Amino acid sequence: MQLPILKFHNIFKSVIWGGTRIADFKGIPPQGDNIGESWEISPLQGKESIVDGGEFDGLSINYLTERHPAEILGSTVTERYGNRFPLLIKFLDSNADLSVQVHPDDTLAAERHNDSGKAELWYSIAPAKGAYYYAGFKEKLSKEQFRHKIADNSIISSLHKFKAKAGDVVPIPAGRIHSLGPGNFVCEIQQASDLTYRIYDFDRRDADGNPRELHVEESIDALNFDDLSKNVSNVAPMLNKDVVLDFSQHFLATLLSVGNRGTLDLPQGKSFTVFVCIDGSALLHDPAGNVTPIRRGNTVLIPASMPTVEVEPAGGKVDLITVSIIN
Fold first, then answer.
1. What is the C-alpha separation between 219 and 120, in angstroms, rounded?
2. For the residues 28-35, what does the mean pLDDT come to?
3. Mind listing the pLDDT tens digit for each residue in 240-249?
């Protein structure tokens, strides 16, 4: 059975650190105050994506993958993850500092939460002047030193700080301490988990004036205290070339800039492919003759059963992040 390319309704999240740029980027009306996240594709319970348009309009992604696992997910994915879409794709807009945090790996997440871990990747799209982020320790800390630095509000001094540039590729494997500073606008690709241990929150208060909950002790078992590397690169789109952003057991992410109409081969039968449009617009032609428009801020899911897709840029080039699971 050949399923069509799928679009989903966005799930917008208002958060203490959110801004206003997601709606502008997508070219849609404002979605509320402090919108820090747009969940593009999500299988998480209670926050699952709903198909927008077409023959499956109104159905959830979980409903479809339960009934058409091979056609949507592919053999590589179903053998590893069953009938559940295994990723969560987002846009993030940070108007203030995110908490300093860490995510557990698969083993710890299974033991503590009966869930998957959370490895993720940031791709910087449009950082504001002066934007920065933190990723990894810059010095080796003992657990006691770590606790002390959180207690005296100095943990930031022990982290690698980077000036954000468009095209920055920031891997955040499970166990890496990290935080986005104000002014960042990124695409985030991650395992389908919402597990986060909040380590430090800049002494912020909630709506009732209380300090936000921290998970210091929980984080100690999750952190990789040996992670001292500056594992950040910068990748710009290259016309009509596919550039790898990250290739791990969890996903393959590439940056693809298409300047003229052409056919792309897909990992047919093995994995779905996600297109996240970060600039320009295009028409996607599937083998059945259906046409799906995509523009900046749109995300689509191409089923594993689809062997090829033809990309026709509209008025120039189109820049896409592609995501699949083939390792």
1. 17
2. 94
3. 999 999 999 9
Whether 112 is a known active-site residue: answer: no
Q: Which residue pairs, CB below 8 angstroms and at least 24 apart, start in 60-66? A: 61/6, 61/8, 61/85, 61/301, 64/3, 64/6
**Nearest-angstrom CA–CA distance, 242 and 320:** 10
Is the pTM for the entire model greater than 0.90? Answer: yes
Q: Report in angstroms the alpha-carbon separations of 316 from 239, 241, 260, 298.
A: 11, 15, 8, 17
Distance, CA of 187 to chain centre: 5
Shortest CA distance to 7 belongs to which of 84, 64, 70? 64
Cα(298)–Cα(87) distance, integer angstroms:
17
Choosing from 147, 198, 295, 296, which is the catalytic residue? Answer: 198
The number of residues in the chain equals 327
pLDDT of residue 205: 77
Residue range 278-292, pLDDT digits in tens: 999 999 999 999 999
